[in-house]
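Hello again, I could really use a second opinion on something today. I've been puzzling over a protein and I'd love to understand its fold better. I'm sending you its amino acid sequence along with the backbone structure tokens. It would help a lot if you went through both lines with me. I've dropped the whole record in just underneath, so have a look.
***
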Amino acid sequence: MNNNRRRNFRGRQQKSNFLRRRNGSSNTSSFNNGNINFNRNGSMNNSHNVEKTMQKFQQLAKDAQSNGDPVLAQNYLQHADHYLRRLNELTEKKESYVDKNKISDNTTSEETLLEKKLS
């Protein structure tokens, strides 16, 4: 065996999203904004996941309070409050979408009734 043999090591390319340019353009609008792709799986748009995350932070706040850390408990409660607001937004958006579809369904059914009467 040859223990003195040097290994050929090829380093990996740096994967940094900071100031990466697309298609070689120098326009600043082509830079990635870190906030745009924060939740790639769309978890903030799924009301079940948002509710689950809110409950997780509420439980963490209870645990922190029982461990005698009121500052950390308040921090977790603020996170839970954020997810509660987001859940309310999603619920409101869903209800308005359902109401909008009901109105359009009622309008089309009334139109078909009028057409039948006129025929």
Remarks:
- The radius of gyration is 27 Å.
- Residues 45-118 form one domain.
- The CA atoms of residues 18 and 61 lie 34 Å apart.
